[in-house]
Write a structure and sequence with these properties.
This protein is α+β, with helices and mostly antiparallel strands. It is built from three helices and 13 strands; from the N terminus they run αβββββββββββββαα. The termini are far apart.
Length: 243
């Protein structure tokens, strides 16, 4: 084989390897961004009992999540923040699911017994946050399932360690989509959006309650959404402290 032919063949092989390596590098960033849940939002949140002076407790949820259409599994990041100027006393965060959204696990947290769940909820976990410094935050990885044939909501109350006071409560706030994708691998859901469930036919929207404007939470759950009702709801059905 002549040296000219060898050089030409070597140049072709080298060029192919460079192209393959470049393609691999270009693919990686898009794969890593697939789990991006967007910025955190305190949408649907409100202060309830007055926090100690200098302490301002809030929570955030992702602006968007994605539900696997075959397994119905999803993941949610729940964050509690102290936006005040002083450290808080010991606090706890509750993560509670409603309707089609069921919380199956929260890392580092204890499941709330069924008999202690707030009225209208289907699942819940209690997370001992401890004292939270000024300007600090703590995030929890929430595993959940979402039945796309129903509406689904989540609630994040921040309480004193003994559960006697609720300083902040986000929700029950819905995740949902107005454009269901039953044939896609996953369905993206947006925070603060009422879900339009997909019926068996793929294009029919079944009723999930007495009417479209009535949230299927029961009397206690529906009353919770009204301003000022959050504290009453949690004081009546306060989860017990984990032993």
């Amino acid at each position: 084989m002549s040296s000219r032919r060898r050089d030409r063949r070597l140049a072709v092989v080298t060029g192919s390897l460079v192209t393959a390596s470049f393609s691999a590098v270009m693919i990686l960033p898009f794969t890593a961004a697939a789990d991006d849940q967007g910025p955190g939002s305190s949408k649907g949140g409100k202060a309830v009992d007055q926090a100690p002076e200098g302490v301002k407790l809030t929570t955030t949820l992702p602006e968007k999540i994605s539900v696997d259409n075959s397994s119905q599994k999803t993941s949610i990041t729940a964050t509690v923040k102290n936006e005040g100027t002083k450290e808080s006393d010991d606090i706890r965060l509750l993560v509670v699911g409603f309707d089609g959204l069921k919380v199956s696990g929260v890392k580092g947290c204890d499941a709330i017994a069924e008999k202690d769940l707030p009225a209208g909820s289907n699942s819940g976990f209690s997370c001992p946050v401890g004292a939270l410094g000024a300007g600090k935050s703590t995030s929890y990885a929430v595993d959940a399932t979402f039945d796309l044939g129903k509406t689904g909501k989540i609630c994040l109350p921040v309480q004193s360690a003994d559960g006697k006071k609720t300083f902040w409560q986000q929700g029950p706030v819905p995740f949902g989509t107005t454009n269901p994708s039953p044939n896609a691998p996953a369905t993206p859901l947006l925070l603060g959006t009422d879900n339009k469930p997909v019926g068996p036919g793929g294009d029919q929207l079944p009723k999930t309650g007495a009417g479209r404007d009535v949230l299927p939470l029961g009397a206690a759950g529906a009353a919770l959404i009204a301003a000022g009702a959050a504290g009453v709801w949690w004081s009546q059905r306060r989860p017990r402290q984990p032993s």
